[in-house]
Amino acid sequence: MSTDPNNLNPKEVFACETQFPVVSPDERFIAFIEKKTGALKIVDLTDGSEAASWSGLGRNALSFISWSADGKRLAIGCYWQGGLWIYDMDTKEATRIVDGSFAWCAWSAPDMSRMVIERGFGSWHHEIWIADVVKEGVPMKGSQK
Fold this sequence. Notes:
Elements: E1 18-23, E2 29-34, E3 40-44, E4 50-54, E5 63-67, E6 73-78, E7 83-88, E8 93-98, E9 102-107, E10 114-121, E11 125-132
Antiparallel strand pairs: 1-2, 2-3, 3-4, 5-6, 6-7, 7-8, 9-10, 10-11
């Protein structure tokens, strides 16, 4: 969909009930959490096909996602003790790297050497953590807060 105010006919890419859509750095994919199931879905914008999916943590998990700068991984922060996960586009697998309640997260660009993570403790207390990232794009244990 164009943000041009003169474009009166926006094009629908696909229909779905979604939460927190994010476009990959190369603008080829869109990743989102499917509202009905809580699953991570990744759609190829060139043809509308499903490029990948992960069942995730179920429909009650509130998740926030962020692409790595190279577009090879997604960070998935989950509230309600869902943890922080890294989804790998090559292996199509997600790895839980930290327990707890997490929300927004983002890699530094372009080198991805650090990640900023919002850690939640209930409704009103949140902390910002900075994690050092290893070569594979995964935050190291014992990262800073």
